[in-house]
Amino acid sequence: MILCSVCQTENDKYATICKKCGGFLQNRVPNLDLFDTLWRIIENPREAFRLIMIAEHKNYALFLYALCGINVAFSGFWYFRIGDRFENILLLIFCALLIGIPLGIALCPIVSSFHWTLSKLLGGKASFRTSMGITSYALTPFTISLLLLLPIELMTFGMYLFTFNPHPIAIKPVSYIVLIGLNSVMILWAFILLIIGTRVGNQISLWKSVFIVAILYGLVLRGVLFCGEYTLSLF
Ligand SMILES: [Zn+2]
């Protein structure tokens, strides 16, 4: 709670003006700066999500989802080991971009609605736009792995990253295990960030946030895998 210094009314701790007298409570945040917000997410996630929550525009949400979609496409190619279907790595990268960007953009309203609905069911206060802002910025570790880890993976393994025979682990076992390990850390980090964001955005308990995020991850993972399997069965 935040107390209005003019009329002493108790306001929501994220309110920018007093609900009774309209007095100034704290700075309003009209826009989010991409790099500043991403840096805050790394440095102080609680503070960053608070900023995202009170920001009037949830800037770059769609952009972050699009980047994540590219990551999902590459992960899908890796998971289903479909390297043999492409003549060369450039064609595979082109396809990952072609599938990934629209996939990410489509996931934005879907994942945000799921997050918003689950939050509402557990008594959360987040609006749909807050859910969109929180889920998109919680994808920061996936953005980092797309921009930093994937180029290293592609340079180290090339096409073999996506083939079954030979399997990438047979080519460079240590590098493969290290890269898989780093990717797992990124997934865990994104999971923790979304729990923090869900908690701050909804003002609910830690366990409710963990529950929401676990259900959300389960649903999205099942959905994406199902779509991947279905698409592959067509070709
Ligand atoms: Zn007041």
Summarize the structure.
By secondary structure, the chain is an all-alpha fold.
Keywords for this structure?
two-stranded antiparallel ribbon, mainly alpha, elongated, 235 residues, binds zinc ion
What this model shows, in words?
By secondary structure, the protein is mostly helical. The protein folds into 2 domains: 1-30, no CATH class; 31-234, no CATH class. Helix content is 69%, strand content 2%. It is built from 9 helices and 2 strands. Strands 1-2 form a two-stranded antiparallel sheet. A hairpin with a 6-residue loop joins strand 1 (2-3) and strand 2 (10-11). The termini are far apart. The structure holds zinc ion (ZN). Zinc ion (ZN) is lined by residues 4, 6-7, 9, 18, 20-21, 23.
Instruction: Report the C-alpha radius of gyration, rounded.
Output: 20 Å
* Shape, principal axes of CA atoms: elongated
Q: Please provide the count of β strands.
A: 2
With strands numbered from the N-terminus, the spatial order across the biggest sheet is 1-2
